[in-house]
Proline iminopeptidase (Streptomyces spinoverrucosus), 301 residues
Amino acid sequence: MRVRPGQTALMIWTGSESETESVTVTADDGVRLWASRSGRGVEPLLLCHGGPGLWDMFEDVAAMLADLATVIRWDQRGCGRSERCAGPWTTDRFVADLDAVRRHFGLRRITLLGHSWGARLALAYALAHPGRVNALVYVAGTGIGPYTDWHPAYEQNLLARLGRNPEHLARWHELKGRAQLTEEEERERALLQWSAEFADPERGMAYARRMADPWFGVNAECNTSLNAEVKRAADVHRACQALAIPTLILDGAHDIRPRSAVDSLERALPHVRRVTLPDAGHLPWFEDPQGFRQAVHDAWA
């Protein structure tokens, strides 16, 4: 099944929706985190959203997996519905926050699904606490090699994808060049950039608008700090080689981040399976919801 023009993934999966319980989780340093629980499945699945500096956009994913798992979503510190705070903005701090979410819901072991930056966070958690993770689903991440292995190509691909609509590209350059933006201009710049994340140019902007609804604003300080940390990240090849957790690497073939960057992680992990959805970009559940659901379902098989 594919999404038809004008549809989003959630419209396909309305029959799997269930009641959502929203809660406040208090981290060990007192910062309050927004979290929610939904789904009717027995297995706990904890989702880690992308960014950094964004918020949970997994409503569609939670709906499509509601019969497979009890789905836990959360907004990372300082982002979205979580308490605005002064950080700290480090992977170690976010790993501790993720563990606070696990404890709040009384979960001894979890399956983790992380997307983009959230895939890096989920992997970091699995490396820090392997005894608490049943399986890892690593969606649209960028591997464990050097930042320079993928980021220059990503920038070139972003400009090329935006260039499918010259007006969008010109406006994106204009907004990117400004020192300060209004909230509406910040949202507009995000929409333009996010539209390039999708393989289908006709639906990209509609998908981007869904990502931005509701709009909580990007935490720029969080984004800058954690991206700087990514650039100087330590080599974790040896730790990944010792990771006994079953891992699914799930990609969209049209992701503007080169998928070859993830080869480093695939080679390092001893228990890994990789699925590439041929018609999808960086957020594969939008463009191939059936393929995405099947791949995640098979991760439990």
Q: What stands out?
A: Residues 1-16 have pLDDT under 50 and may be disordered. The domain at 9-145+217-300 is CATH 3.40.50.1820 (Rossmann fold). The chain is about 40% helix and 15% strand. Residues 11 and 159 are 31 Å apart (CA to CA).
